[in-house]
Amino acid sequence: MLYTILKKKCLPIFIMVISVTQASAQRQDTLLSLRDVIALGNQNYHLLRARAFDAIAAEKNVDVVKYSKLPTIDASYQAGISTANNLIGVFNPNGILPISGPPSTENKFEPGTGSAAGILLNWQAVTFGERNARINTAVSEAAVQKSLLQKERFQHSINIISNYLDILLAYANLNIHQQNIKRVEANLKQSQVLTNSGIKAGVDTDLFRSELSKAKVEYINSHKQLEILQWNLARLIVIENVPVPQDSTFLSTLPASGMLTDNDFNLHPFVKYSQSQFELSQSKEQQIKKSYLPKINVWGAGFARGSGFQADGSLNTWDGLNLNRYNYSVGLQLIFPIMKYGEARRQLEQQSSLSKAAEEHLQDERSRLSSQQQIANTTLNHSLQVVSETKEQLKSAQTAFNAMQIRYNTGLVNFSDLIQAQYTLLKSELDVKQAYWDTWKAQLLEAAVKGNLNIFLNEMK
User: Fold this and answer.
1) Which pLDDT tens digit goes with each residue over 342-371?
2) 425 CB contacts (<8 Å, ≥6 apart)?
3) N- to C-terminal Cα distance for the chain?
4) DSSP state for residue 68 in the 8-state scheme
5) I want to staple 377 with a disulfide (CB 3.0 to 4.6 A). Which of 24, 259, 263, 342 is the partner?
């Protein structure tokens, strides 16, 4: 009988201890400061790494476009065996190999060898600004990719800090619920003593057991929320271990800086990104305007031929593999795309609308940040006031609970009065941490609005 009782009581505890031990063995915690997680996120996050490679590729594309200033030089050599039957006349050699030379008296099918070699230089010497416009467009595209990297890196840092604060609040709530469990357990023991002495009814013990289960459920849910937040932060900074915040003073101190009034957002990563898109659109407009201007090409060639067919009509089959006629030529070429103007004009109308749209996006970004700054100032101001009130609320709730607990132990109040005081104390403890958290969230919003993380980081104690 005794063995059965011990088995029923001890086995669940033993299983729970084994489960906790296994879970602890499977996960490893990593203690990290806020600056550490920001650095890890910027270094490891895959999307940011992809944006960095995009920016590098855009910079390399600028070099590619600039390289187009140089002339092209093509060298070639060919050899073949063919007949040499020919007629005088003009024809369009579409799909037919071109044939040159004097007309033949008849069709002969004895093949002879032939060869040709040449070097061709082609240089687009004058483009009347079209080449520089293409280079400027490539530079603007690189600037867009660079500003996009800065924008997403800044946003990622904001997300990391926000998640870091969420974890701190989750830890604080977990500790509060743990303390609440201890209070309920103490009241349960006291109720058992009062029940055994006849001061309280036995139903109070059952009610306290129910409250203890509720408190444990709240603790379990808080622990679940904490682990979810930790794994989310681990994803943001790309580590396998569970991150544990080292900077834990946020929920017991307040930021010292006041509200921001400067409305200059030119250095904000979001504004710089929108500005770069607007400048890219304008660069494309200039490139289109230059695309229908004339171009002057400089070309030069040196070439040679060999043929097994002799001038007197005789055939020396293999002599054609040797080059025996040499030529050179140089010249200028003026190219004017007559029909390009209509196409370019329509492209310009399209791009002009895109430029206006980009400008409106830029102005909308400035307007949004200006509005968010007012919201951030309002939030920070009211959050500081709430902290002061919740601290007073907690002080009163603690005093009331202690007094109610004494009165319950002496039989002057019932279970409902004590448990209500306990709920009030629990809520007050949670509200204080929430108020501190709200204040630092508001400070983070201030930093996000101004595009400067130091506004937040410099407030760390």
Assistant:
1) 899 999 999 999 999 999 999 999 999 999
2) 183, 394, 397, 398, 400, 401
3) 60
4) T
5) 259
What is residue 447's DSSP assignment?
Answer: H
Phi, psi of 303 (to 5 degrees): -145, 160
Collapsing DSSP to helix, strand or coil, 232 comes out as: helix
Q: Which residue type is seen at 209?
A: R
Tally the residues of the chain: 461
Q: In whole angstroms, what is the distance from residue 79 CA to residue 99 CA? A: 15
Query: What's the mean pLDDT in 78-90?
Result: 83
Residue 216 identity: K
Q: Does pLDDT of 3 surpass 60?
A: no
The first and second tokens of residue 19, run together, are 């489960």
Distance, CA of 216 to chain centre: 39
Token pair 């196409």 is found at 343
Mean pLDDT of 73-97: 82
Q: Rounded to an integer, what distance in angstroms lies between the CA atom of residue 115 and that of residue 78?
A: 5
pLDDT in tens, 181-220: 999 999 888 888 877 777 776 788 888 899 999 999 999 9
Strand, helix or coil for residue 301: strand
Residue appearing with tokens 């709430």: 386
- The answer to whether 162 and 331 have CB atoms below 8 angstroms apart is no
Task: Give the separation between CA 39 and CA 422, rounded to whole angstroms.
Answer: 43
